[in-house]
Specification:
Elements lengths: L4 E2 L2 E2 L1 H4 L10 E5 L2 E5 L4 E4 L3 E4 L1 H20 L16 H17 L1 H4 L6 H16 L10 H19 L9 H8 L4 H17 L6 H6 L2
Antiparallel strand pairs: 1-2, 3-4, 5-6
Helix pairs in contact: 3-5, 3-6, 5-6, 6-7
Length: 214
Amino acid sequence: MAGCVVASDINECRCQPDSCSVANTQCINTPASYQCHCPDGFEGSADTHCTGTLYTAALSLSLYTHTARYSLHNPIPTSVDMLSVDGDADAAVETRIRIGWNKFRQLVPLLTNKDVSLIMRGRLHSRCVRSSMLHGSETWPVRKENLAAFQRAEMRMVRWMCGVKLKNRLPSIELRERLGVDDIALVLQQNRLRWYKHVLRKDDDDLCEEMHGV
């Protein structure tokens, strides 16, 4: 094999690719011998195992999160840009509901786990699912039809988390109380009012403040 012998020394790493049999190990040629060791980002003994460190795991998680976020947002533009020519937010609402369902299905094993309390499921839903549904909604021109679409989608999720069906005819208020969550329409209104307070605190020469009087 080419490159096996260099200056009268046999390069075991090149001549015998399986010299280091433990997964993730790296072979280093030495005079008249060779050594196996765990490369950067791995820890352990090259004789037994080389496992990824927390840095490697965090990097993998970061790459996965970035990939998932990219697949959700592309080629769909950001919610701020998804206003139709008529000025409504129908496209933005539809997209955000779809993103919320994607996030919900990823968390179904936790959101429907009977070992997890209903209150904890509600908190997880609010932090992860609902926040993704309402992202960017502070500036939308929301109509009653949009609020109804949000409420229908979330109540389906709420019934799923509570383990009940529509035919059980349980009041929505009671199911939300079990999870400790508010009506999504109320949360959306609070977010819009909070954003409006930010606009009112802007300087007089700020673009948002100038547009406020238009």
